[in-house]
Amino acid sequence: MNKNLLWKLGLILGTLLVFLFGIFGIPKSFSKDGLLTAITDHIHLGLDLRGGTHLILQVQVNDAVNGDSDRAVERLKEDLRTHKINYTEITKPDPVTRPDQIALKGVPPESTSDLRSIVSERLPEYNLNSGADNAWTFSMKPQALAELKNRAVALAIETIRNRIDQLGVSEPVIQEHGLGQYQILVQLPGMDDSARVKDIMQSTAMLEIKQVLGGPYSS
Predict the structure, then answer these.
(1) Which pLDDT value is given to residue 38?
(2) Considering only 14-23, 39-48, 84-93, which range has the smallest mean pLDDT?
(3) Beta bridge partners of residue 89, listed in sequence order
(4) Alpha carbon separation from 53 to 112, 126, 186 (Å, rounded)
């Protein structure tokens, strides 16, 4: 009976040691400091145990929509000029709350067919609606608008992740925040300098091209 108990106890202890070594690795020494180092190297404490920075960021998706509609306005002007279609005004009536809308005024009725062709070929992501006094309204289709906003959030997450890598934070959480619309959750365990984190995330990248004088090449 005692032999069976000892055999079972040895099997249990051996199994525990195998799992412990698999989780923590083989410590450099079996002293208190060696065991503590092995544990801290393989277990990364989260924000709740270690502390750090917790941020919820709001992505300004309307900025992306405004940029897209601005480019659409320029394409529309160019195409109207190419097709010799007269108009009096192209504007964005409400760029703050409806950045996806473009207003076109003064198009002659005989140019309606050409205008629809331009929109179909060059601006397929927009719906075209006619109004009074030869006025037209371009509205981005709901699916195209949603995709544009989602791409803006995905790009913001990628940009933030690339910048957070500069801090060397172990196992950061950077993901879309499910509790808000177009928000990003950022959790950085062990990083208490929130001001530095914000500066890095909000910094603007800049590319400079400079002329090299007196270099190793003749031209």
Answers:
(1) 56
(2) 39-48
(3) 105
(4) 56, 41, 8
How many CA within 13 A on the CB side of residue 163? Answer: 17
- Tabulate helix, strand, coil % of the chain (nearest 5): 50, 15, 35
Q: How far is CA 72 from the centre of its chain?
A: 23
Alpha carbon of 33 to those of 1, 14, 17: distances in Å?
39, 23, 19
| pLDDT at 50 exceeding the cut of 60 | no
- Six token digits for residue 14: 């051996």
Give the DSSP H/E element, type plus range, for residue 18. helix 2-24
pLDDT mean over 76-84: 95
As a whole number of angstroms, the distance between CA 122 and CA 75 comes to 8
Distance of CA 145 to the CA centre of its chain: 16
pTM of the model: 0.68
Other residues' Cβ atoms within 10 Å of the Cβ of residue 134? 16
Distance CA 205, CA 90 (A): 32
**CA pair distance 160, 187, nearest whole angstrom:** 12
Which DSSP string do the residues of 123-159 spell out, in sequence order?
Answer: -TTEEEEE-STT-EEEEE-HHHHHHHHHHHHHHHHHH
- Supply angle C-alpha 140, 147, 135, rounded to 5: 5
Distance CA 31, CA 38 (A): 11
